[in-house]
Design goal:
The chain is an alpha+beta fold. The chain is 17% helix and 37% strand.
Length: 214
């Protein structure tokens, strides 16, 4: 398993690439997770005694890789979390889905209900009790055989959103067996390749893309 890579840090934020297999946050098992790994990284690098603060601002599923931002102070955590609530933090993904999509680009709007025990979400076309609205925009980058590589702009950040929404329209992600996708030896074909947001202190809009940090 690859290790996380820190691609940017200052006194306020830390940006790192999460590899497939890492949890975003510990779940009480021995599975490696980003938050613990990066806290240890800070502790060793800066020789910090005691507990290290690092704010988890968003998550990626265990079998999904990509770029993540963490806050080094509670003030920065609060400010970036507010950007997330307001939809100002831009998240883009690359996904390979089964089949050829009918439209070269489009928008998916659904309502999700999380089944915590099954760790799975149900997708509805109309609002139902306890559902949360979810939206994403997509465009096809290219077709690969009988599959489509798509660029996804996430407009809301719901659990399993991309995976479940594409499965709902009959195009599950490759490797995503939970949502009906074909098996794959390389995990789920989903990668968070881009983050853009305003720096919590300077206000400058900053961007991080896997195209530039690999």
């Amino acid at each position: 398993m690859d290790s996380p890579r820190v691609v940017f840090e200052d006194n306020h934020i830390l940006v790192a690439v999460k590899p497939v297999g890492f949890l975003s946050q510990g779940d009480g098992t021995d599975s490696p997770d980003m938050l613990t790994y990066l806290k240890d990284y800070i502790k060793v690098k800066y020789n910090k005694p005691g507990n290290v603060y690092l704010g988890l601002l968003h998550r990626l599923d265990r079998n999904v890789s990509g770029v993540m931002v963490f806050a080094k102070t509670s003030k920065c955590a609060s400010r970036i979390s507010e950007q997330i609530r307001q939809g100002k933090l831009i998240k883009k993904y690359h996904a390979t889905v089964k089949g050829i999509l009918k439209s070269d680009s489009g928008k998916l709007v659904n309502y999700l209900v999380k089944d915590e025990r099954a760790n799975k979400v149900k997708v509805y076309d109309k609002e139902v009790p306890y559902s949360k609205k979810c939206e994403l925009e997509y465009k096809i980058i290219k077709t690969v055989g009988e599959n489509s590589l798509v660029d996804v702009h996430l407009l809301t950040g719901r659990s399993h959103q991309i995976r479940s929404q594409f499965a709902h329209i009959g195009h599950p992600l490759l490797g995503d067996v939970k949502y009906g996708g074909p098996k794959s030896n390389s995990g789920i074909a989903l990668e968070s390749y881009y983050l853009g947001f305003n720096h919590p202190i300077t206000g400058e809009f900053i961007e991080f893309s896997l195209d530039n940090v690999n």
